[in-house]
Structure formats: structure tokens, C-alpha cells
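Q: What would this complex look like in 3D?
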Amino acid sequence: MSFNTFGHQFRVTTWGESHGPALGATVDGCPPGIEIDEAFIQQFLDRRRPGQSKETTQRKEPDAVRILSGVFEGKTTGTTIQLMIENTDQRSKDYGEIARQFRPGHADITYHQKYGIRDYRGGGRSSARETAARVAAGGVAQAALRQLVPDLQIYGYMVQMGAKHLDRAKFDRNAILQNPFFLPDAEAVDEWADYLAAIRKGQNSVGAAIEVVAEGCPAGLGAPIYAKMDTELAAAMMSINAVKGVEIGEGMAAAALTGVENADEMVMGADGVEYLSNRAGGILGGITTGQPITVRFAVKPTSSILTPRRSVNVAGEEVEVITKGRHDPCVGIRAVPVAEAMMACVILDQFLMDRAQTGGIRGTIG
Amino acid sequence: MSFNTFGHQFRVTTWGESHGPALGATVDGCPPGIEIDEAFIQQFLDRRRPGQSKETTQRKEPDAVRILSGVFEGKTTGTTIQLMIENTDQRSKDYGEIARQFRPGHADITYHQKYGIRDYRGGGRSSARETAARVAAGGVAQAALRQLVPDLQIYGYMVQMGAKHLDRAKFDRNAILQNPFFLPDAEAVDEWADYLAAIRKGQNSVGAAIEVVAEGCPAGLGAPIYAKMDTELAAAMMSINAVKGVEIGEGMAAAALTGVENADEMVMGADGVEYLSNRAGGILGGITTGQPITVRFAVKPTSSILTPRRSVNVAGEEVEVITKGRHDPCVGIRAVPVAEAMMACVILDQFLMDRAQTGGIRGTIG
Amino acid sequence: MSFNTFGHQFRVTTWGESHGPALGATVDGCPPGIEIDEAFIQQFLDRRRPGQSKETTQRKEPDAVRILSGVFEGKTTGTTIQLMIENTDQRSKDYGEIARQFRPGHADITYHQKYGIRDYRGGGRSSARETAARVAAGGVAQAALRQLVPDLQIYGYMVQMGAKHLDRAKFDRNAILQNPFFLPDAEAVDEWADYLAAIRKGQNSVGAAIEVVAEGCPAGLGAPIYAKMDTELAAAMMSINAVKGVEIGEGMAAAALTGVENADEMVMGADGVEYLSNRAGGILGGITTGQPITVRFAVKPTSSILTPRRSVNVAGEEVEVITKGRHDPCVGIRAVPVAEAMMACVILDQFLMDRAQTGGIRGTIG
Amino acid sequence: MSFNTFGHQFRVTTWGESHGPALGATVDGCPPGIEIDEAFIQQFLDRRRPGQSKETTQRKEPDAVRILSGVFEGKTTGTTIQLMIENTDQRSKDYGEIARQFRPGHADITYHQKYGIRDYRGGGRSSARETAARVAAGGVAQAALRQLVPDLQIYGYMVQMGAKHLDRAKFDRNAILQNPFFLPDAEAVDEWADYLAAIRKGQNSVGAAIEVVAEGCPAGLGAPIYAKMDTELAAAMMSINAVKGVEIGEGMAAAALTGVENADEMVMGADGVEYLSNRAGGILGGITTGQPITVRFAVKPTSSILTPRRSVNVAGEEVEVITKGRHDPCVGIRAVPVAEAMMACVILDQFLMDRAQTGGIRGTIG
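A: Here is my prediction, written as C-alpha cells for the whole assembly.
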């Protein structure tokens, strides 16, 4: 069993290799009657597109998405939606030399060990390029959520890049889309840019931490016990290339808290229950509370670097690996729109799962 | 869609409420011919059983498991295995007062909101008692792994309890099962015990961090893209009650690393490829490398505490909640055997998934 | 991957062997707030219970169902529902001699070949006894449908038993539950009884054909392309022990029809679209039309008979098999309540699947 | 939940509408290292291609398949395989008039009722054109089976077309691919051709029955209880457009048999167990016996005919429907390669499922 599908109701199967003719997403289970077109999906793809700045790989791809099925006269029909993105800039030559070598910290060796064969061109299936398909599928989810959960807003941003940390006191949501780092602090952008430039000049790369927030999600979404909202979000984020840690609300810091500190106290407000804090990250018992859902995850540094590292090749010879070609010094940056897409897919999926079982009934308070 | 099942090939569906007549696990997909009996499973249940010491709830449950199907003459037959644990010590009276109130930081309110009805006795389905069923299912997985992956060893331990941290310099695996904290440092046990006693005396509770390691797992397990070994482990751990963060290898710390630091370099050793470090936690591209798999997760403090907290009730009245009854001051402690069980289930599941697709073929090196 | 689960939203996993301590069904995904108790489920079990008459096996089993989880204060909570039926009358001795032999036409040999081990007591997992668990799960589905699709009525009946055929001109629905054959023709009962008595006296058994009808099912249920209503019903019926053929509407006879004959013409009636015929069996393109859903299936004769048949044993020796013990001369009779249960599960499952994707919206006509 | 996926291990998701830009199949779970290319898949597509003779629709489509992912240097890599077929001959004008009308016996009305929107061009998603994607996916399954189960041979043929029946005494497998009816009797071809010509001249269409056989399938495949080999085959065939009945082995005729007649007796032959008959169609208890697997199914007549039929339109007006355009007078003919493809997918899926659970171990006899 390979496993290129995620989601239960809203099921996305991604396909395609970095240097194949195309890649895309096969979306099954989308509600019918959702207004959507290629331009709507394209806006999300444009945000993760390579070649936007010197902070991201210089590979030039228009990443133009085509809807091949499932949409008729501007609306979804309830049938399979096929989204295709053609690979236009492949330059296989760049990658020829890694055909026999394994990059340290990269999936090269494990794909070889598992499958006995791998498409080594640009990392093949293990390339972060696969995430373009996720972003396209996320666009469909965003279109559906726009109609089904109109108050929902999903936004992600960088909170850390190597030694640089976001100063939360200066958090400005409006700044996020104004800079190539998705950084919610306009003043810090130059500093981060200089830092990353130095990393690149040092023939190195660096890790990052991203936070994604969903505001306006209704209470009651999440399927205990094994498809809890936090479980699904953790799986979604951990499935993104190079992610090694995921946190909901307090995350790992919860280990240091006492029960008195951790209790998100409740009072009755004008619109019903109000929480005095949100250490739970908007999820209790795997079910949403109606507070903002907050997820944080860490992305390890790009494993493809110009600094030589010790490794082996298919023949079992020890080699020094230097990875030329076009690679982001910080893959975490482009993980921001990917994480937003994954969160949109998970929330839509949970909305549909909840609608199936409960029909949307809700226990009232007061 | 409720979602009480986890796993793809080795599929475990848990059932039962804290104060119902019984709870258990329905296990589908277990290979046939696996030697197993109730005593083998019982040893794992005994490790998480309540009432073992003052560190865990005083609720007295023998937690005796019965195999109702799927095993014949001491071996699995390949059919559904039903594991049942009867609830013998329920004392529903203890819990009567929370029928209308919602404990801050607890699933009481979200279950009510989602389903419009909840079994409030002892937390019903959201009780950590559900994890007994996971441990029983984990016992089946351990029996299968004993035959299919004989070199595999899975062990978990506490690395943090509130303000107390494991001193890794003193790590002693043999100490883990010698103390009620699953602490791999015998010398620190009294200090941790005093700390937790003070927490309880203060009518409080505290969080914890647990680490689980799998040694001897072969390379090649893990199903990219959306059932990666790390994705499945993250989901498995995040599905455990009160878990808010999961890390693989370096985890969140990967955000601070450079590519040079993060690269797990490789050389050729006597038995093939040898890694000079294991920042990846034994997983690259979602597929195991053959190194130890290391997972870490944080458990928030018990939400049921004696210190009054502000909350609301079903009628929409503001109330002060004080939770009497028998509750662990640190639920994280008993999460250790639960996490071991989840890891066993995930590794077996991935072993079977890999066997399905690849037939166990492996790409050779050298 | 074993596969003891059916359903997508309403997911039933059955467990248990013919002569184990118990068998049952683990039901996941049931909507919350459904009124149900053991007595409601029991009425369905009582209809398939053995030992009711000389037409069915003399094995005496109360088949008393217990609800172990998922129901609180008379209503479903949305969590896993565990249904258990204890085996009280086992008499393993009766079956000892088939431990090494394979009954012709029976699963004995294939279970042995597939798993290398089998619980030979009473056929173990392959026994028709497994269907008791389906009927219990069907009771839960019936309870949910009673609230969600109140107009729905599901009823099955025999249309053939060996050489005996139902005379449709005499169809009387009220007669079905008045005789042990579920025969909708009171006058024919004695004749069928004599026929079956002769079959038994001849140390033989006989096949049967059953028809199941669902009236009052709304239009719009069914999930093209691969979970069509007819696809799911075909799978459900074919999964019942000894079933070898399934027909929807005209069934196999459709091969002889012309397009002019086959077209179910439509007119506008007082309540909207009216069909002038129902050759499609209430399903077009895998989606219900609102007409009665009609399914027919054939059950082969019991393979356990007293007439000696040539076979082999585990040692590879040729043997003559005579199966003593308590066996129905026509297993098809008890397939009637089983098929009703499967149809209830499928329709509920499709109702929930449709609710997930469409939210129950419907395209209007006129 | 829409449901455009079939299979458990070998999972095929089809996409595309009759008159969209393209259609195809997304194949997940294919074993790695399988030799395959577009030409191999194309041979299967060529057999179902329209426009081959006057017996099938005159729509001219090259139906050229492209492999967009999952294959590298002539072998599968274990990642998602995307197969795309572009629609080159659409002529939407032909279909304009059915935009508001519902063809009797067609999915037009139920798609409208379920989704509130439908792509009416050529039947959109409900068109038999979807089966081209199945045939392409079946080509991948055939390639995998060629390596994994080399003795397996799958072949289908017509056994009935309206009033015409195959004379089994004249069965000649070699004749099947020599005539446009997949008829295993060369002498009868002209007679069938004249019969079908008369049907068309009469502005009518006709149903058909097809039989598919798999020889050389090993014993032990099939996943009781709910993914039995016969259950999966029944679902696979019933999911094909216009199919209304499915039979395994004796099928519906089993209802007339006695146990003595139905018992497939066994003796020991040179190569182990030998069966003296095959009424079970090669499947006992849902598991293959090693005998030929025989499946039969009925296809109803094309609902798009030139003879006027009474119907209604979206406005709720009564209309007379006459369907112009290019339609097969017997859709059953092209169901033959489709059924072969479905059978190949099911057998491969079961082979992989079995490999997962049992590792291919087998209980021996003698």
C-alpha cells in the first residue's frame, strides 16, 4: 500500500514527480455547487511559486493549474476534480550526478532501499515540488469553505528561521503577505533577509518554524478518538516535507504547566461561552471549541547544500556529496502556503465528517 | 463519521466508556499463526493499571483482558480478535456532580456541543480509560512483531514532569521499569516523587514529556506521502488523551539548525551503511533508515483538579468547578505504556503495508 | 489485511467464531441521539434465531444481545457501539471429526490454505453464525433509520426454495412473518414444508432465492462511481454466506430486454415525478430514484449434509465426508433477516455519505 | 463522500467527464519495479475503443493514454501512477437538447436530484466513457500480474445479446478476439450481426450478458468476511454502467440445486487437490480454490434510443424524449474489456491484501 491520499470525506490524492511531465491532485468528495475557477486556485499557487525572490529557488515555473474535471459552468458537480500542473522547467542535467549518490538527510537512500528503484531527477516524488499539488487541492478546499464556513480565516506565518525569532510583541497580520518570509513584522524583514543571505553565502541552509491559525471555525468539529482535529492537523503538518515537530496550542510547553495554569477558564459572554485563555489551541478532546485553532511546526534545513558532506553511493562507496542546482536555503518559507492548504483540507474534511454523523446538530448551552 | 479505528492493515477499533460495563479493542488484519495468550497481553496492561502507587489514581481495576475471538489453540487465526476488559470498579456517585458542569481544559463541553449528549460518568468516552484498550491491542501488535521483526525493541520513558527534567547524562534504560515514573534515572526518583506529592498537596496537577524509542526496526518501512512513518507516529501520539505536541528526532529544535549541522552523514561499516548521527530520528522521507526511531511528546496536566476554576454549566450559568474523585496528578505517567502500544501498532501496520506493496524487496547498497 | 468491516460512514466490524465464547459487532459512526435499547435489537435477532422450527437447525441459542458501549440513558452518544452475543450452546464434540477433513463446497479447505490454521469447531469464522452479528448491527441501523428516514420500510421474503417458486400472483406481504419460510403466500406454506421435509429425509439440502425490498427510500442516495447504491447492495448480499448471485430490478433478465422495453417512462404526478415501471429496481446511475429498491439473491444449498461426498483431508488422503451435527437443510431461510439487516446498514450508510457531501440538498423538478 | 476510488491496496481513482478536456485514472499502491509502458496499456484501450465497427458508436476517439507519473525508465517506482486520456472528439452540439430533459432509464434525473447540478454533455460523469479510465488502470494491473502471478489469464466474452445466446457446445476461446462481439463462436457472428443491425434499424437497443474467467489464480486469495473475492468481483462488475445482475459460478441457478448436486467433490491428483466440478466458480468462503474464477453479469440496453419515450424535464413538463447522437445499440459489447480490467484490478488487489496479512504463507495438504 502506497499512500498518496489524505482526507476521509474530502479526499486528495497527489501525483507526479519533480521532473516528470506534470503533477497534480485528484480531489474526491468535494460538495457540489461550489463556485470555483482556475484563477481562484492559481492565487494560492502563486504564493508558493519558486523563483519569486532570491530567498527561494531560482527554478522558474509558472505553476499554472488546469482543472480537467469535476467543474461545470463555474461550479463543482460533486464528481472527481482533477487538477494538473505541467512541469515546464526541468533541466534534468542539473541533477544527473545524484543518480548514484545519497544526499545526507535526504530521502534518496530510503526510497532506494524501500522501492529498489527511484526517480532521482530532482528528488522525484520526494521533492518538495509535490507540495504544489497540495496547494492546488487546498484552493478547492478554500473555495468550499468560503461557502460552507464563511467566517473561517486561515493564515500562516514564520515564527522562526534558524537563530531568528519572531518578536510576538510586534505581530502584525497585515505584514505577512508583504514580504517573502511571510513574516508578521515588517521591521524585521531586512534583518532576516541579511541572515538568510549569509547562510546562502556560507553554502549552507537553515531550518524554520511556522505557525498556522484558523479563526472562525465553529465548535464541534473533530472526530474522536483517532481522527481528532489535533490528530489530523498533526498528521497533515508532519506529512509536509522536512517537518519534524508539530504543536497544538501550548505544544511541548504543556509539559511544564500545572493544571491550574493550563485550565482555559470559561465565562458567559454576550454570544455564549467565552474562554479566558486558549492554551488548548482551540481543541479539547479532539473537538474544536470555537476559539482560534493554532498549530506550530518545525521544518528542518534543506538537505541539498553546497558544503561537502560524507555519504555513500549505490555501489557502497564512500563519497563526498555536494549538491549543486537550485535549492531554497530555507525550505520552511514555502511551507507556509502549504500548511495553510493542509489546514483548509483538514477543516473541510472534518466539517463534512461532522455533517455526516451529526447532521450539524449542536448541544446548546443556556 | 465517528473515527474509533486506527491503522490501515492492522486495524484497531476501540470501544467503551469509563463507567460502562466493559471496554475493549476490536483488532482486524492481524497475521495468522501468531503465538499469543491473555497472559502475554496482560503484562502490558499491568504496567498502565491504575492504583499501583500514590502517583496514579487510586481507582482499583484489575484490568483483566479476555480474548473473545480470533485466537485458536494459542495462535491467531487471521480473523477478528476481540479483546474485552470489564469495568469492575465504577462508583458512579463520585462523578455525579459533573453531569451538568464543564471542566475547564476538558472534553466535557466539546462532546456536549458536538453530540448534544454525553456520558458524563467519569468522562465517558473521553476518559483516559480508553487507553487501556490501546494497550491491549498493542499487546497483539507486540506478539506479531516478536515473530515478524524479532530484533525490534520498543521502550518509552519520562523525560520531563513539570519543572523536573531527565538528566540525559544519567540515562539508564534498566531503571525505567524499576520506578513508578518510568524514569531512566534511579537516583532522581525520590526527587520526582516529592515534587509530585507537593503538586498533589497543592490540589494541582502537572504536565509531562515522554520519549519512545524503537530499536531494531528495519530500513524501508513507511508509506509516503501521507502515511509516512513520522506522520503515522505523530497521529498516533497526538491521538492519546491530553497530548499537545509531538517531535521526531530533533523535533522543534530542527528550526534552529543549519543544513551542515542537520545532515546525518553516512559511512560504510561492517554491516553496510552506518550513520554518524541520528537527528532525523530514524526516518528520512517518511521511510525508516534502520536507525533507532525516536519520538517525543508532551502531555498537558490533568484537567480534573481540586483547585476551583471558573466555568459554565449546561444551563449557561457561571460556576466554580472543583473536581473530586480519583485522578492522576500527572496523567503523563501512564501515557508511557500507551505510547509504546501505539508505536508497536504503527510499526506493525507499516510492516504489513510495506509487505503488501513491495513484498519486502529491498534496494541493496554495495 | 483481513476485512471484517463493512460500510463507510456507518461502519460495522463483526467478530467471533461459531464456538468461541461470544461473537458480536463493533459499530462506528452511528449518529448520536438515536433512541435504542437491547429489546429493539433483540426483535431482529429473534427472527433469525436457530431452533425455531424443524426447518432450521436444532441448535438452541437464546442469542441474547448486550449493548456494552455507545448508548447512554437510552440514546446513542455517537461513540462506538459494542454489541455482544454470548455462545451458550456449543457441543464441540459434534464437530470434532471435521478437524482434519474438508467438506466439499465449504470454506474448510480455503481457510486452511489461506491462513495455515483454522478454527474447525462449527466452521469457526466461516460459520453462518457470523450473520447473527450482522443482524444485531442491522438493528442499530434500523433504529437510526426510524428517526432519519421515517418512511422507509425494508422487508425480505423467499421467492424460491429448490424446485418451489413463489407464485407472485398470490403475493401477500402480511403472510411473510406468519410462517417459518418468510413466504408471502400462506397457502403454499404446507407444500414448501413437505418439500423441505423430504429434502431432509433424503439426507440432502437445497438452495433458495430471496428478495428484499426497501420502500420509502428518498431519491438521491448512492455514491457514484464505485459506491453506487446497487454496487453496495450487491457487495452486501454477496458477502452473506453461500450467496452466489445478486440482481437489482430486472437483474440477469435485463440481458434479454430492448431499450424500448427497459425504459422506465416518467410522467408528472400529484407529488412530482412518477415512474410508469421500475425495471431499474429503484436505482439509476447508482443513485436512488425514490421508487422501491428491489434486490434478489441466490443462496446455495448447505454444504454440510449426511449424504457421503468424496473429499480429501489435511494429510492429503482421499476420504468420504458425511457431516453429522445440526445443520439447516436450507440456509437460505435464515438469510432473509440477514439480508434485511445488510440493506438497512447500506441505506443508512448511503444516507450519511450523501449528507456529508451534499448536505441533503436536492435538485428540484418543476 | 463521493466515491470515485476502488480497491484497497491497489487503489484506482477515476476522473473525467465525457466531454471534458480529458479523463483518466490515478493509481496508487502499485508495486515498484513493474515493467510497463504506454504501448502495453494502449492495447487494452484499443479493444474497447469506439468507432471500431458499426456495432459500436461512431464516435471517433484515438483514446491515446499518457503516463504522467509513477513510471521511470520503463518501470513503476511505487509512487502514484497518473494515466490521462484526452478527449479529442466531443461535438457538444449533438447533446445540447438533453440539457433540460431526462432520458428514461438514464442517470440524468438522479444526478440532477442528488447534486442539483450535472454536466449534461454526453452524460458527463455518468457516461460509459468513464470506463476507458478503468481499462487503462486495468492495464497497469495486468502488467503487475504478469510479473506477480505469471500463470494468470483473464478473458471475457459475450454469452447473450437480447434473444441471442451463446451455444456453449461451440465455445472457442480463440474466436473471441476475432469478431466485434467478443463472441467465442465464429459461426454465430453473422447471425448476431444481423440481429443487432435489425435492432438498430428499429431505433432500439438491446441488453447483453458477459462472462469473465480467470484461469491460473492461486488458492488463498480473498479477504473474508466483507472483502471476499466474490464480494469484490460482484461490486466491481455492478459498478460498471448499466449492469443489473452478477453471478459467481452457478449464480442464481444455485437456488435450484441440492447439496448433493452442489458439492464440488475433491480427489488427490498429481499436483495435489483436484476438484471434480466447479459450481462454486473457483471461490469458497470468499477465498479462491485455485480453480478458474467465473463471473457472469447482465448489462441493460442502452437508454439513449431514437424511439420516443415519455419523460419529464427540469421544469417539470412532460416531454417525449428522442436521443439522437452516437450511441451503441448494445453497450454490453464494450463491457467485455472493461470487465476484464476490473477483474485484473480485483485479483491484484486481493493478491496484495493477502501478501500483507499472510506474507503468502499457505496451509499445505498432504
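A: To summarize the key features: The helical segments of chain B are 38-48, 108-115, 131-148, 189-201, 229-238, 259-262, 332-358. The mean pLDDT of chain B is 93.
Q: Very helpful, thank you.
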